[in-house]
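Chapter review: from sequence to fold.
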Amino acid sequence: MSFIIGLDIGGTKIAGALFDTDRRKVAQIVRSTPEDYSDLITMCGDIVNQLEKQGSHASSIGVGVPGTVDQETGSIPVATNTPCLSGKPLREDLRRILNRPVALANDANCAALSEAVGGAGAGYRIVFGLILGTGVGGGLIVDQKIVAGPNGLTGEFGHIPLPFRETEDGPLTECLCCQKGCIDKSISGPALVRLYAAMTGAQNDATQIAERARGGDKEAQRVLDRFYTVVAKAMVPVIHMFDPDIIVVSGGLSNLPGLYNEVPKRWEKYTISKNLRTKFIPAQHGALSGLRGAAWMGRSLI
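The token string follows.
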């Protein structure tokens, strides 16, 4: 039996999983992310070795990373969440230590691929994977293949201004891209917290806001009502640019009560076409999506 491995390198943890070629998970390992680049490379090699002891030699390895990937150099120009990766020849160094080809892609692209192949987006031609969490990310899959673009920017809709912005949409916040009012700063978890504070004068984190809303708290429900309008506005560039069959949502905010009913109700107010067929649904594989997608991406090297 052949095996494939996916690695997901994040700011706080590195996860690795061994799958068979039917995408069934055989083993998984999670380690804390080292701050030193050399230590990180060594840890990735150790994770792969440990996984293969629980199965067999993997015929391919795919790696998901935060940030845009320069596919020519196999590097991440700017890795905000994992600074030690910035500008380093990550793909080449992993190839060296693992002694086999390595495929490298943005983690949102990996998660989207996972859902397009055997997940919530299976059977659809154009799948957009939306990550709603501490930050906002996106990945575009067409015919079960990642569309990355020459600059690795496809799906990075978080760094365009929120369209149709109104004062009621929350505080105008500066983004790491040096602009204000980006989608990333409008529909992320911290954005929901800022909106709640602006509308109620109180402080609660995103989990508490969701729990209060589920419990019938009118203030929390009022905040989520506005937040869903903001999310709907943010989906308009995605719909107009990519016209996806389906938008699959993962991340820490993906379980907000009413999200999947309310957002599609609202986006047609802002889109040029009405009666849209685009579906808006939760991801099927949750936290495992990035690993599954990375492993499946690596399979293209076989």
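Two observations follow directly from the output. Strands lie at 3-9, 13-20, 25-32, 58-65, 102-106, 126-132, 136-142, 145-146, 246-250, 279-282. The chain has two domains: 3-100, 123-286.
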